[in-house]
Here is the input.
Amino acid sequence: MQGDASVGERKNTQEMEVEKVFHMKKGVDHTSYARNSLLQRTISSQAGPIIVESARKVYDTLRPECLMMAEMGCSSGPNSLLLVSKIIDVIDEASRSINCQCPQFGVFLNDLPGNDFNTLFNLLPNFNQGLQEAKGSGFRPCFVSGIPKSFYGRVFPDKFLHFVHSSNSLHWLSQVPKGLVSENGEALNKGNIVLAKSSPPEIHKAYYAQFESDFTLFLRSRSREMVSGGGMVVVLTGSINSDDPDSMLELVGPILQDMVLKGVIEQEKVDEFNMPLYTPTVEEVRKLVEAEESFALNKLETFTTDWSVDTSQTLETQAKFVAKTIRAVVEPLITTAFGHAVMDDLFLMSETRVKERIAKKTGEFFNIVLSVTKKD
Here is the structure.
């Protein structure tokens, strides 16, 4: 969202329609997601062996003439196409090993309608050229399309997809949970903008209820869209304990409070502001997959990723990197609630908070990777 929002135009997150306003920072400037998504790329790379293993299993089992794959939560940077290239490489290698022609590929890049698809599509000429140069003139076509629609619900026809992948997306909810305000209108999550360690039990209950609804809908929708024997891998940020989440975004809440003290923003707006984010535990994910019953569980593993990716850098460099990563993800939501004018100061202040956290060596993402196969 560009420009400063007037008071009348701004909405608190109890009212905002997340599907309409949520997307990563657009464009290719120095604060854009396209330029600041190395952390997400690193997470996907760490999960890469499980992703390509699942894709190869799909090919070995089904041998489709045209392999249909969906990248759900593709965003706007190069990460999705880099992963698609790896999947194509492994299936091309598998087909060559049995003297078969590599299948054609249908690749569907899915995200919310506000996603910066133009920046993503501008990468396609180099992507296609790279495939042709690497595979030769005999390589069969790869057809890439954009699908602007929420993945919390149906996106594709029945029995259409062979492989589904989603990284760094399913911890984002379809809406801010209900129940974050008392009957008399008091905000119940004061001092926080996400579910945090200091949030009261009713806030955790509300956030989990929304995640349960969204994640179950995601599974149910994909089960209708995938063929029997199809594979899906989901990578998302998780928590070790359901009542003790540890989110990078927890750092933003205290900064907003500092800005209240400086008179930059209103206390009421901060009290009302909550991010649509839930980081589940492994057992919560397992429970929901088993309850939905459409998928056979292949793997459910965890791994950690340092916030700054490269811990060999100076503390200042790491802090700047993390602050830019946060900004590229949450700026559209922040500006919807508080206006664009607060952004530069907010994220300059966030560098200090991040630096303090990294100095304590406590800045890590806890990631969950789920691999499943669609049952008959």
About this structure: DSSP finds eleven helices and seven strands in the chain.
